[in-house]
Specification:
The complex is a heterodimer. Chain A is mainly α. In chain A, 58% of the residues lie in helices and 0% in strands. Chain A contains twelve helices and no strands. The model of chain A has no long low-confidence stretch (mean pLDDT 90). Chain B is α/β, with parallel strands linked by helices. In chain B, strand 12 and strand 13 form a beta hairpin. The longest helix of chain B is centred in the first third of the chain and has 16 residues. Chain B is globular, with a radius of gyration of 23 Å. Chain B starts with a helix and ends with a strand. In chain B, 35% of the residues are buried. The model of chain B has no long low-confidence stretch (mean pLDDT 87). The chains are: A mainly alpha, B alpha/beta.
């Protein structure tokens, strides 16, 4: 961490510049689609890439506090808000706290299967698990809404039995307000205002935005599943983790995640979550540094005989699909 | 126009770009063309960096044209990007508003601190590079009329230099300056001499504590004037007590060095101010525990510095990161309560 400094500040600013350029050229090209649909297609891809950068390399990492040291009022975890349906504060609470502290402890880390999928024998098999691959596809398509709904579902705001003794940090009414207001803003922005600005090309822009959002959803969902639910990922019980030491915490982080191999650009587009293991060990280290430390981490793992779970994108994705299918049966 | 446009564009930016201001949204893009262009700051170009005495720098900055001109005696916050991180310190402007108006240039006279986290970087500033400044702030100004006595100590001379230069253009009553510093460490003496030659109403005395004794011995000479004091806290306190006892009008700008408790494991206590709610904290436990013990509700999570839930804005004071032992900066920054201990009085935004 001692090396973190100017390079990292310049890097995140460069990525933000890239995101802005992609976003605006994308939005303009969508309208220019009337000249030739190819322009529209490039526009969709540019906008989707911008949304992926905003979600992964900028949003996720800035909100993890990786750039808080810069003391920049626009690039820090308190101020940043991303371009997805999920309210940043809500994500911060559930993801940064629950998921990163209690990684893969069944019953505490609600990211494990999101309450929708059965991904280990820790859960009882139910009939609905038979078609959980379809559920998984639906979740991927609507991933931003899944993320947005995550905290409300966890707190059982709308359905399910409310636990009397739970320490609610935020009142339900506020959770609801934030969920609906952020969600509505996103819908109005992408499917009403920007299309209206395009006048006669309303539909071009609307469909373009829809596809860009869809591509972003599919991409983020896939990367996140590959980081957490490959075949080798281990789970833990609450009992195992009582009074765990700092070392045991690291050990759990190591076994609870998996990496994806890829090129430099692939890593940037995943927000370096292709280095999920390193991310779980050092969540607030500027993510680009994971590339540097990964060989060292791998060496430490080897010395201690810990499995370092990594592979190509297709290998890891195949393993995720297998896991979802395997546990759809009892 | 801006009054209308800003709220509108900021509303738009909040709804569509999730940024509190439009400027914040486009900032990294603008920076490609205009280095150091920042939302909420002014830009200034470094024109001169010059050592004028032992460990003392004179820095001249050309301010951007929309910068509101200061009044003599006011200060600015100067922000540098040091290794990717924005660091801010306060400096009094040691040049006249007149110069700022006509040449667009302001001057700072800065005493360098050994092993400081900021001033050593000032010496390395390149001519033609850019820094950020705030608008002028402060109400330490020259009275409209009447005889005046300035009391300066050390680098507390700076606001008076600005006032004297401005005084060249404005007719006022007698001004006398009493300037304390370590022997032979008085700043800008040649400039003071030239000013006293040009200004009929200005005289000054240079004093040092070792040879001229305590400031209090000199005070009785100046009963019939208004007093302006600028210098360290102790210096100011001495003069203020005297002025109060003798019913003399006094205004001041004094800087207090933060009382750090960095070394040693022995227990020490400090004041914590959380948006007006005050309590005492020790330097042994994490701040989060002490907030909770004082029944101050703050969000928290993992308790080990990972989840950033207990992060809050420290406005003043220094804390230590318990994981690395690293000390925070003095000014405003984000810190995590669960892994921070106090090493000075601190103030938080509620």
């Amino acid at each position: 961490m001692a090396k973190v400094g100017e390079q990292d500040a310049n890097y995140i600013r460069r990525v933000i510049v890239m995101q802005r350029i992609l976003e605006w050229s994308g939005r303009i090209l969508l309208v220019l689609g009337f000249i030739t649909p190819w322009l529209w297609l490039v526009g969709v891809l540019a906008l989707a890439t911008a949304k992926i950068l905003d979600n992964m390399e900028i949003g996720h990492n800035v909100m993890h506090g990786q750039y808080d040291w810069m003391n920049d009022k626009h690039i820090n975890s308190k101020a940043y808000e991303w371009d997805i349906a999920c309210d940043g504060k809500s994500w911060n609470r559930v993801h940064n706290f629950e998921h990163h502290t209690y990684t893969n402890i069944i019953g505490k880390d609600r990211d494990f299967g999101y309450g929708l999928l059965r991904l280990s024998n820790d859960f009882r098999w139910r009939v609905k698990n038979l078609w959980q691959f379809i559920t998984y596809l639906n979740l991927s398509v609507l991933f931003q809404w899944g993320v947005a709904y995550h905290e409300l579902a966890a707190e059982r705001v709308f359905f399910g039995k409310k636990k009397e003794n739970r320490d609610y940090k935020v009142p339900h009414s506020e959770l609801k307000t934030r969920f609906f207001s952020k969600g509505a803003r996103q819908l109005i922005k992408d499917y009403l205002i920007f299309p209206l600005l395009a006048g006669p090309f309303f539909l071009w822009v609307l469909v373009g935005n829809l596809i860009a959002n869809l591509l972003r959803n599919l991409w983020t969902s896939t990367i996140i599943f590959c980081g957490h639910f490959t075949g080798d990922v281990k789970t833990f019980s609450e009992k195992e983790c009582e009074n765990e030491t700092k070392g045991q915490w690291y050990y759990r982080q190591a076994l609870g995640s998996s990496n994806i191999k890829g090129s430099k650009w692939f890593h940037v587009l995943t927000g370096h979550l292709s280095f999920q293991i390193e991310h779980h060990l050092f969540p607030d280290m500027p993510a680009k540094r994971y590339r540097e430390i990964a060989p060292k981490v791998q060496k430490v793992f080897r010395e201690h005989g810990i499995q370092y779970n990594t592979g190509s994108f297709f290998k890891q994705y195949g393993s995720v699909v297998k896991r979802i299918l395997r546990y759809s049966l009892p | 126009m801006n009054v209308l446009l800003n709220p509108l564009s900021n509303w738009f930016s909040k709804q569509f770009f999730h940024h509190t201001s439009m400027a914040g949204y486009i900032e990294p893009v603008i920076q490609l063309f205009k280095p150091s262009w920042r939302d909420g700051y002014y830009r200034a170009k470094v024109v001169v960096v010059q050592a004028i005495a032992n460990r003392t720098l004179a820095i001249e900055l050309k301010t951007e044209s929309r910068w509101p001109t200061h009044k003599a005696g006011q200060h600015i916050e100067l922000t540098l990007e040091i290794n990717g991180r924005l660091v801010t310190r306060v400096f009094t402007i040691a040049s006249s508003p007149n110069q700022a108006m006509h040449e667009g240039v302001i001057r700072l006279v800065v005493k360098q601190q050994d092993a400081g986290a900021f001033t050593p970087y000032l010496a390395r500033l390149q001519v033609n590079s850019w820094v950020n400044i705030s608008k002028p702030k402060g109400a330490f100004l020259l009275p409209q009329s009447g005889a005046v006595t300035f009391f300066a100590a050390g680098s507390g001379i700076t606001p008076f230099i600005a006032m004297l230069h401005q005084n060249l253009h404005e007719q006022v009553d007698p001004i006398h300056l009493v300037y304390y510093a370590k022997a032979n460490e008085h700043l800008v003496v040649a400039e003071l001499e030239s000013l006293s030659n040009r200004l009929a109403n200005f005289t000054f005395t240079l004093l040092s504590r070792s040879s001229d004794g305590d400031v209090i011995e000199k005070l009785s000479e100046f009963h019939n004037s208004k007093w302006l004091v600028c210098g360290p806290n102790d210096f100011y306190k001495t003069i203020q007590n005297y002025a109060e006892a003798h019913q003399i009008s006094i205004s001041s700008e004094h800087f207090s060095l933060v009382n750090l408790h960095v070394h040693g494991d022995e227990k020490a206590h400090f004041q914590v101010d959380h948006g007006g709610i005050k309590f005492t904290a020790d330097n042994q436990q994490p701040l989060l525990a002490q907030f909770q013990a004082n029944k101050i509700n703050v969000p928290y999570g993992c308790g080990m510095g990972i989840c950033h839930q207990c992060q809050c804005v420290k406005k003043k004071g220094v804390v230590r990161d318990m994981r690395t032992g690293k000390l925070s900066d003095y000014g405003e920054e984000l810190i995590q309560l669960c892994v921070s201990q106090v090493v000075s009085d601190v103030e938080f935004k509620a």
